[in-house]
Amino acid sequence: MKVPFIDILRYENNFYDTVSEKTAALLKNGHFVGGPIVAEFESSLKNYTKTEFALGCANGTDAIQVALRAAGVEKNDKVIIPDMTFWATFEAVVNVGAVPYTIDVSKETLHLTASAVKEAIEKFNPKAAILVHLYGWACPETLEIRKLCEEKGVILIEDCAQAIGVKINNQSLLTSALVATTSFYPAKVLGASGDAGGIFTTSSQIAQTSQKLINHGRTSHYEHGYIGWNSRLGAYEANFLNESLKHLDARLESRRVVTQQYRDRINNPKLKFISPASNVWENGYLSVALMTPETRPAFIEYLKKHDIGYGTVYPGAMSEQPGATAHLGGKISHGNADWIAKSVINLPCFAYMSQAEIDFVIDTVNKF
């Protein structure tokens, strides 16, 4: 049996037909940029995430850049970010002219801690911080970090590219975030058919500024109050996302079944499966295990031999990336992000993975 790491084509019955019919309607009405389909998706997204404001944009990287600018981050401002994240978090800071400072993450939770953020604030005196929620979880100390940043006057942006549908303390992670972003890249739990992103905020001012920045900084059709981006969400992607959102709860539940079965049934001592914190309700985006850096290469070759896909999310710390050298303002490192990058392994996990596929992965991994 061949099991891919991810299969983005496991649609519900009639999903393809419904999307195709609505795409045909777009071809007839010409509402390709903006228009009622985009407005409908933004309204549905707002309702699903229980946020005050939800805006679509062209991609997840633009979402971070727009959020930074809209929240008040300017040229040469210092921004602290976790050393374990995707490159987009780092480059977004650079692209708005600010300076990134990396902070190490916890070996236990794989996320930032409030104490690490406090240390970085005292050491670097940043204008802003980006809290990244990885693996389909939430940082377990999210509420403490939000409170800390508010007390210290540090703007907090939350990168939720992997966290749509995640809850913390039984509440949507996005509901009370000052400003948060996401990616609708096709491989995400809520994926478009191409690139797309989203911005969420409790602030009407940030929402209004974000809307202008997304659309060339327009304050009226031919008046531009900001240097913005052409980062509008297209109607085709909004159409696909709107239909996907209707099935999101079922997709997330099917993913959670996979991650939980791996934790419950894989008993190979070479792998240590990591679970979200007890106050976090996951979305099943990734299965996460750690193994010794010395063992992982052989395990990867074993998976390849048995036609089982895998991931190493993420295979390198931000501060160690070649492109970081010229832009990194400073860092606090205890080697944790680098160790996690060399130790993490992700087994196949996607919506509507069959029980036969799950069983095959589990049996094969247990025999390694």
Structure overview:
The protein has helices at 15-29, 36-49, 60-71, 87-95, 114-124, 142-152, 204-214, 235-245, 248-265, 296-305, 336-343, 355-366, and strands at residues 53-57, 78-82, 99-103, 128-132, 155-159, 167-168, 171-172, 179-183, 197-201, 218-220, 223-224, 272-273, 280-281, 289-290, 330-332, 344-345. By secondary structure, it is an alpha/beta fold. It has two domains: 15-245, Type I PLP-dependent aspartate aminotransferase-like (Major domain) (Aspartate Aminotransferase, domain 2); 248-366, Aspartate Aminotransferase, domain 1, CATH 3.90.1150.10. The strands form four sheets. Strands 1-9-8-5-4-2-3-15 form an eight-stranded mixed β-sheet, sandwiched between helices. Strands 7-6-13 form a three-stranded antiparallel β-sheet, with no helix packed on it. It has a three-stranded antiparallel β-sheet with strand order 12-14-16. The longest helix is centred in the last third of the chain and has 18 residues, at 248-265. The protein is globular. The two termini are 17 Å apart.
How would you summarize the topology of this molecule?
Elements: H1 15-29, H2 36-49, E1 53-57, H3 60-71, E2 78-82, H4 87-95, E3 99-103, H5 114-124, E4 128-132, H6 142-152, E5 155-159, E6 167-168, E7 171-172, E8 179-183, E9 197-201, H7 204-214, E10 218-220, E11 223-224, H8 235-245, H9 248-265, E12 272-273, E13 280-281, E14 289-290, H10 296-305, E15 330-332, H11 336-343, E16 344-345, H12 355-366
Parallel strand pairs: 2-3, 2-4, 3-15, 4-5, 5-8
Antiparallel strand pairs: 1-9, 6-7, 6-13, 8-9, 10-11, 12-14, 14-16
Helix pairs in contact: 1-8, 2-8, 3-4, 3-7, 5-6
